[in-house]
């Protein structure tokens, strides 16, 4: 059961406010999108990755992913995230027409652990049509009206924070994006559904959850880059300790 991953990386990253588009911001010497692609391929269950690049940076993105060879291709992204996903998905299906599973990942969730990627793929392979990684909500959540007045306090026990990669049976996502009926059409994504699972929910298809991970957070603001640095430092210490333990056991 072949697996395609699409990586929308064509956003401007306005909230991050860097000099380059967010997916090209370097962390530990590599652009975020390279970390994201590396994570997907390291999971060992993804056959092909399509990156949607900012129109003005296609050659930079092509050069950045060259090391991965023919397993990674690049398309020009669109105006909104949904447009980029649609363009990458359409291209991925021509590269790997027999694919049965599609992952939609954010370049901005560059440090998603391989365990999360594998559990999403395994869940779709087991027969579920749509699978998303989620985390419980730690804060109290308020619903407000247009004046900013609080109108409700939803029970957070029934709420989840949604991450990527989101996994789909290929026909389910293809239909949700209207790829068969209108291959050159616009993305049906709207302000009301900011993730791909939202589109699938609208078509009445059940969406299932697996456990997400705190390391799969979306790099959005400058503060998040400081969190990435701390996370990578913590990982380096853990890897050093593991090496020492192996050394002592020999
Ligand atoms: N037209 C767009 C907009 C977003 N994305 C991608 O979708 C992912 C999630 O979007 P987000 O984190 O919101 O990124 P930006 O839109 O770049 O951020 P901002 O809203 O701060 O500008 C990112 O990897 C981003 O590059 C995309 O491929 N094409
Ligand atoms: C897809 C997503 O990352 C799931 O949490 C999120 O919806 C993207 O939102 P944004 O509007 O692109 O920040």
TrEMBL record:
Q: Report the enzyme's class at the first EC level.
A: transferase
Q: Where is this site: Transition state stabilizer?
A: 15, 22
Residues marked Positions MEP for the nucleophilic attack (site) = 156, 218
Q: Which InterPro entries match?
A: IspD, IspD/TarI, IspD/TarI_cytidylyltransf_bact, ISPD_synthase_CS, Nucleotide-diphossugar_trans
Q: Which reaction does it catalyse?
A: 2-C-methyl-D-erythritol 4-phosphate + CTP + H(+) = 4-CDP-2-C-methyl-D-erythritol + diphosphate
Q: What is its EC number?
A: 2.7.7.60
Cross-referenced Pfam families: IspD (PF01128)
Write out the coiled-coil annotation as residue ranges.
none
Instruction: Extract the GO molecular function terms from the UniProt entry.
Output: 2-C-methyl-D-erythritol 4-phosphate cytidylyltransferase activity
The pathway that the record names for this protein is: Isoprenoid biosynthesis; isopentenyl diphosphate biosynthesis via DXP pathway; isopentenyl diphosphate from 1-deoxy-D-xylulose 5-phosphate: step 2/6
Q: Per its UniProt record, what PROSITE patterns does this chain match?
A: ISPD
Q: Which GO terms describe its biological process?
A: isopentenyl diphosphate biosynthetic process, methylerythritol 4-phosphate pathway
Q: What does the UniProt keyword field contain?
A: Isoprene biosynthesis, Nucleotidyltransferase, Transferase
The UniProt family comment states: Belongs to the IspD/TarI cytidylyltransferase family. IspD subfamily.
> What does the UniProt function comment say about this protein?
Catalyzes the formation of 4-diphosphocytidyl-2-C-methyl-D-erythritol from CTP and 2-C-methyl-D-erythritol 4-phosphate (MEP).
Protein name listed in UniProt: 2-C-methyl-D-erythritol 4-phosphate cytidylyltransferase
């Amino acid at each position: 059961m072949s697996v395609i991953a699409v990586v929308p990386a064509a956003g401007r990253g306005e909230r991050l406010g860097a000099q380059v588009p967010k997916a090209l911001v370097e962390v530990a010497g590599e652009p975020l999108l390279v970390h994201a692609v590396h994570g997907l391929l390291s999971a060992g269950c993804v056959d092909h990755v399509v990156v949607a690049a900012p129109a003005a940076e296609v050659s930079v993105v092509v050069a950045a992913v060259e090391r991965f060879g023919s397993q990674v291709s690049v398309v020009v992204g669109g105006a909104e995230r949904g447009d980029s996903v649609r363009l990458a998905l359409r291209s991925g299906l021509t590269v790997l027409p027999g694919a049965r599973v599609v992952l939609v990942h954010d370049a901005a969730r560059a440090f998603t652990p391989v365990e999360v990627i594998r559990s999403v793929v395994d869940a779709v392979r087991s027969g579920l049509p749509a699978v998303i990684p989620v985390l419980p909500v730690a804060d109290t959540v308020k619903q407000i009206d247009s004046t900013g007045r609080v109108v409700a306090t939803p029970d957070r026990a029934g709420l989840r924070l949604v991450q990527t990669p989101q996994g789909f049976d290929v026909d389910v996502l293809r239909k949700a994006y209207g790829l068969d009926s209108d291959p050159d059409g616009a993305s049906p994504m709207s302000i009301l559904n900011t993730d791909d699972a939202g589109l699938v929910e609208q078509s009445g298809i059940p969406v299932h959850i697996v456990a997400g991970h705190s390391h799969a957070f979306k790099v959005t603001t400058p503060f998040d880059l400081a969190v990435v640095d701390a996370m990578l430092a913590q990982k380096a210490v853990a890897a050093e300790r593991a090496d020492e333990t192996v050394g002592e056991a020999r």
